[in-house]
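Fold it.
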Amino acid sequence: GDALDTSNKLPNDFDELYRYIKSYVKENQLEGSVEILRGDNSVFIRFRDNIFFDPDKSVLKNDSKNILNFLGACFNNLEDKILAIRINGHTATVPNAAKTPGFDRTLSTDRANSVLIYLEEVAKVQPKKLIAIGYGRNYPVATNDTEEGRKKNRRVELLILSNESNEANSDDLYQLLLGNFSADQIESYSDPDTSEDVLIPEQ
């Protein structure tokens, strides 16, 4: 369908949030670097790390701030409907690379925190709704044997959870609270526009 004009309107519910972010990604030609998925009570966004960071760095690149400002404005408009925003940082395993112990864990945590701090300090998203976690290289979505696979594994994910999760629909919430939410394990996630399950990584 046609891209929405997202320049002056903000989403009022989770369906609009999904569509607005999708339109923003399309308008800014970011399709190769950003995936957006709609869960029952959530929106999940996966970013390739190069959108936000230079290699092995955790300082936000200047040109990443536009999308974070856009997301922050969307989140603030939905403030009363959002239960939590979880920010996951992930790195890749580089075969035979000598790295300091804990480097990947620290890098992934620092990156998740950089996104969180920007949303909190600059975009003024409610601090208590933001959670950042660094997973290091422990949850790859692709092979680490190729550079293309490693690029997919280096990523930052945002899970925006609706407070409309009720008991019958609390699977996303339950997984989040358990600390083991991974979109790859939630089959109800799909891209409503293509109706394919886009989350199965190519092997």
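Residues 103-121 form the longest helix (19 residues).
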